[in-house]
Amino acid sequence: MTTVRTRIAPSPTGDPHVGTAYIALFNMCFARQHGGQFILRIEDTDQVRSSSESEQQIYDALRWLGIEWDEGPDVGGPHGPYRQSERATIYKEHSDILVEKGHAFPCFCSSERLNEVRAQQMANKQTPAYDGHCAHLDPADAQQRVAAGESHVIRMKMPTEGICVVKDMLRGDVEIGWDRMDMQVLMKADGLPTYFLANVVDDHLMGITHVLRGEEWLPSAPKLIKLYEYFGWEQPVLCYMPLLRNPDKSKLSKRKNPTSINFYERMGYLPQAMLNYLGRMGWSMPDEREKFSLEDMIEHFDINRVSLGGPIFDVEKLSWLNGQWLRELSVEQFADAARQWAFNTDYVMQIAPHVQGRVETLSQIAPLAGFFFSGSVPLTAELFAHKKLDNNQVRQVLQIVLWKLESLRQWDKDAITACINATGELLELKLRDIMPLMFAAITGQANSVSVLDAMEILGPDLTRFRLRQALELLGAASKKESKEWEKLLAE
After folding, report:
1. Whole-number mean pLDDT of the chain?
2. What's the Cα-to-Cα distance from 454 to each of 69, 315, 372, 400, rounded to whole Å?
3. How far apart are CA 446 and CA 435, in angstroms?
4. How far apart are CA 186 and CA 195, in angstroms?
5. d(CA 321, CA 277)
């Protein structure tokens, strides 16, 4: 009997996302319930956006939740390496096989040509797609151009007629027309693979038997199925999980809901409660109880109990559930949880140097530094009244600072200061014009300890959250304003 093997393959390109944890949880539970193995693989072929810091955050966030893997970059295993950036030779070998068999071809089209084709297709109200320009080149001529070092990508050939039947564990047979599939790029000009080739090759070589992934990948499933067919490999069982949604039913996004796992840790949610809540996303226990442990979920796990209705990620409901977990702790466990969260020596020692020189009694610490131990801070419009800027200018400053901080990968005082300075240069404002707004948004006070030091200590998640709260209070940017302000950033 084949051992069940599942995997999660996150990209280390940003904050660890609750959607990643949700898919990881269901993959782990499915594997454990069948006595199988769960593998973590890092999809870091986007060399521009991938970072080792982000990779480490993925490990830390998943482990904080209680999600453990049997094989991965940090724990090793018999099917390594587990980082895609370290498997380039493997992908090249398999790409060459597809070209040799006539299932793929080198494409030498420039980005300018592709843009022209796309523009023409859109003008003709056609679906933008590759027009097959290089698919008909003589293979020998194409290989000569490749050997001469001409820049190219590798594309896969696709049928243009008929129906692909995708067998999905949750939906049954899903029919998708082959004419909806583009000639997918498999290998980029930099010699690294795209998602499609890397996933199929890695899943096969790592012995993955079941692939549970988000339903946003269902429309492109025929490309994966065709690649398995081209290689002559047995395809794993496919399961497309429903997407997490905001309360307004839109796809979960950081613009409407905090999506970083780190945010919920910093806000003081218990990992058991967070995992419990993610387990309730589209799934339920046989007895329908709301509160259950990871062990309970694994014991009773049945993938057929997943509901296809988009599960709503509601922070209020999560907070209610977290309260249930907190109240069931013993007083000693509750105190220990608080210590681990923020009242621990490491965190207090970061804050103490900034507070010590500003107080005359220890009782002054809480009023001065209480914002370090809060999630949100109390804000009023009066706090943001500015001698020089009107309300719309204040909103613009806060929004642009937030956008710049959202794209910041290295979180330290110098990088934060650079973002604020860059905003000042963009809007022709001095640092002294912007800093009062930072004090107000981050500390809820007109002045306090150094707000730049405070932002570094609070971390990216709470800092961005508080800036979003300030913008909600003052009025979020309209679509028109967002476009105008984003143009400023692009200049």
Report:
1. 94
2. 35, 25, 8, 19
3. 10
4. 8
5. 7
Using alpha carbons, select from 435, 446, 448, 441 the residue that is nearest to residue 366. 448
Beta pairing partners, 211? 238
What is the structure's pLDDT at 50?
A: 85
- Whether residue 464 contacts residue 266, with contact meaning beta carbons closer than 8 Å, is answered with no
From residue 441, alpha-carbon distances to 182, 375, 468 in Å are: 47, 12, 9
The alpha-helical segments, DSSP class H, found in 308-450 are 315-327, 331-341, 345-356, 365-369, 391-406, 413-427, 431-443
Q: Would you say the C-alpha torsion 471, 474, 480, 483 has a positive or negative sign? A: negative
- State the distance between the two ends of the chain, measured CA to CA, in whole angstroms: 60
- Distance (Å, whole) CA 360 – CA 356: 8
**SS percent in the chain: helix, strand, coil, step 5:** 50, 10, 35
- What phi, psi does 414 have (nearest 5°)? -65, -45
Alpha-carbon Rg for the chain, nearest whole angstrom, is: 26
* Residues designated catalytic: 254
Cβ atoms of 154 and 190 within 8 Å: the answer is no
Q: b/e per residue, 157-170, with b = 16+ CB within 10 A?
A: bbeeeeebebebbb
Q: Are 187 and 155 in contact (CB under 8 A)?
A: no
Rounded (5°) CA angle 235-237-243 = 125
pLDDT score recorded for residue 219 = 95
Which residue numbers in the chain have pLDDT < 50?
Answer: none
CA atoms within 13 A on the CB side of 317: 13
In angstroms, the CA 232 to CA 94 distance is 12
Q: What is the DSSP string of 178-231?
A: GGG----EEE-TTSPBPHHHHHHHHHHHTT--EEEEEGGGGGGHHHHHHHHHHH
Answering whether pTM is above 0.70, one says yes
Q: What confidence tens digit (pLDDT) does each residue in 401-446 have? A: 999 999 888 899 999 999 999 999 999 999 999 999 999 999 999 8
Pair of tokens at residue 176: 């998708």
Helix (H) or strand (E) holding 63: helix 52-65
What is the C-alpha separation between 27 and 39, in angstroms, rounded?
9
